[in-house]
């Protein structure tokens, strides 16, 4: 093997300091239009009572004019940047987690970066409801590895564009919104090891109903996101609590040392089942943002945490266990220091 030139090795060593990273700021944006269950029930032959009981959802938000994926990302990111004490030109990288940006290409992230005057690296993450937690993991590795100092991570969805109003299994679940976090270099570690993975054997359990090619060639109607509800429910309840436990173990944290549990806001019954399986202590702050926000996929974890931080329900500097899971199937969980 040829010897590595000395200059290359020296340059690499100095280019990759091992730093610490933390979430330095968090923000959220909820669309103006509130959609109560009563607006949805007729077309799916349902009732407000059934939806509340089976999902915990009372209302959700649907985006309108001036609330595009880009607009919502920017409005969620602004308070996150302010909290982190940085401006747009300080952003080295933008990671946008979304499944509802309506362009095959280019990604949404470069436009978000542009709106902040940043020319930093920018790309989208397609990991559905797990996308934001993947983004936090990647941002952590980038900052720790020395390839960025400040990474803007956005979870954003306009799922109302991809939801069938007539689909009994999904019409009442999905909502729109955006959450954002700034991951910055810090003196102390603030993001624990991520436990993540996928199960492509269950690729079709939550998916767009038809491919764009089928839609075009067969002249099909606009596709939407379909879901095998019961399969997803079982996978989430039985599969995700052990993943969350592994994230706790990897971080060297026990449940009684947590200040918050912020799971993906899929369904309140899934949240309750996870709390039980993880034996989380009574009185621990549990995110239940789903009641007023619905399931906003990639936006759900940062939106839920943003609400808790803004309302002073969880302490800055405390520890939160967060987990995202969904289409792919894919999942990611980590313990983070609350900004
Ligand atoms: C979608 C979900 C709430 C449906 O609940 P469910 O109990 O599994 O519903 P089922 O499909 O088994 O149907 C049970 C009954 O409710 C009825 N039903 C289904 N959807 C309904 C609706 N929207 N309104 C009223 N009744 C409904 C069915 O007709 C059935 O009636 P029957 O017992 O008389 O035959 C549930 O499967 C779920 O929460 N899954 C996980 C979804 C999720 O979290 N997705 C996000 C993952 S990221």
Automatic annotation (TrEMBL):
NCBIfam families: fabH, PRK09352.1. Pathway: Lipid metabolism; fatty acid biosynthesis. Residues 123-200 form the Beta-ketoacyl-[acyl-carrier-protein] synthase III N-terminal domain. Its EC number is 2.3.1.180. This is Beta-ketoacyl-[acyl-carrier-protein] synthase III. Homodimer. Keywords: Acyltransferase, Cytoplasm, Fatty acid biosynthesis, Fatty acid metabolism, Lipid biosynthesis, Lipid metabolism, Multifunctional enzyme, Transferase. Pfam families: ACP_syn_III, ACP_syn_III_C. Signal peptide: none annotated. It comes from Fodinibacter luteus. It is found in: Cytoplasm. Residues 265-269 are annotated as: ACP-binding. The last Arg residue of the ACP-binding site is essential for the weak association between ACP/AcpP and FabH. It catalyses: malonyl-[ACP] + acetyl-CoA + H(+) = 3-oxobutanoyl-[ACP] + CO2 + CoA. InterPro entries: ACP_syn_III_C, ACP_syn_III_N, FabH, Thiolase-like. Belongs to the thiolase-like superfamily. FabH family. Residues 248-336 form the Beta-ketoacyl-[acyl-carrier-protein] synthase III C-terminal domain. CDD domains: KAS_III (cd00830). Its main location: cytoplasm. Catalyzes the condensation reaction of fatty acid synthesis by the addition to an acyl acceptor of two carbons from malonyl-ACP. Catalyzes the first condensation reaction which initiates fatty acid synthesis and may therefore play a role in governing the total rate of fatty acid production. Possesses both acetoacetyl-ACP synthase and acetyl transacylase activities. Its substrate specificity determines the biosynthesis of branched-chain and/or straight-chain of fatty acids. The active site is at residues 129, 264, 295.
């Amino acid at each position: 093997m040829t010897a590595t030139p000395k200059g290359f090795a020296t340059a690499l060593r100095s280019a990759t300091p091992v730093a610490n990273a933390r979430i330095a700021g968090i923000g959220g944006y909820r669309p103006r239009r509130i959609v109560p269950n009563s607006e949805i029930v007729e077309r799916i032959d349902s009732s407000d009572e059934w939806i509340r009981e089976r999902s915990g959802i009372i209302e959700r938000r649907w985006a309108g004019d001036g609330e595009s994926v880009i607009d919502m990302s920017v409005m969620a990111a602004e308070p996150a940047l302010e909290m982190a004490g940085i401006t747009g030109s300080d952003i080295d990288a933008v990671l946008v987690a979304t499944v509802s940006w309506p362009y095959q290409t280019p990604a949404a992230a470069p436009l978000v970066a542009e709106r902040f005057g940043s020319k930093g690296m920018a790309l989208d993450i397609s990991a559905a409801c797990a996308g934001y937690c993947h983004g936090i993991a990647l941002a952590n590795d980038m900052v720790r590895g020395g390839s960025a100092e400040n990474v803007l991570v956005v979870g954003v969805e306009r799922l109302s564009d991809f939801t069938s109003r007539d689909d009994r299994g999904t019409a009442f679940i999905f909502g729109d919104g955006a959450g954002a976090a700034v991951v910055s270099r810090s003196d102390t570690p603030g993001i624990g090891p991520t436990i993540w993975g996928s199960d492509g054997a269950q690729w079709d359990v939550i998916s767009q109903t038809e491919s764009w090619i089928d839609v075009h060639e067969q002249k099909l109607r606009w596709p939407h996101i379909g879901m095998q509800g019961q399969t997803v429910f079982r996978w989430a309840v039985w599969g995700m609590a052990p993943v969350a436990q592994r994230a706790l173990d990897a971080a060297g944290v026990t449940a009684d040392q947590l200040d918050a549990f912020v799971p993906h806001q899929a369904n309140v019954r899934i949240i309750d089942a996870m709390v039980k399986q993880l034996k989380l202590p009574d009185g621990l702050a549990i995110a239940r943002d789903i009641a007023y926000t619905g399931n906003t996929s990639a936006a759900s974890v940062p939106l839920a945490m943003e609400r808790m931080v803004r309302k002073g329900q969880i302490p800055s500097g405390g520890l939160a266990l967060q987990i995202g899971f969904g289409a792919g199937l894919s999942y990611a969980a980590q313990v983070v220091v609350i900004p």
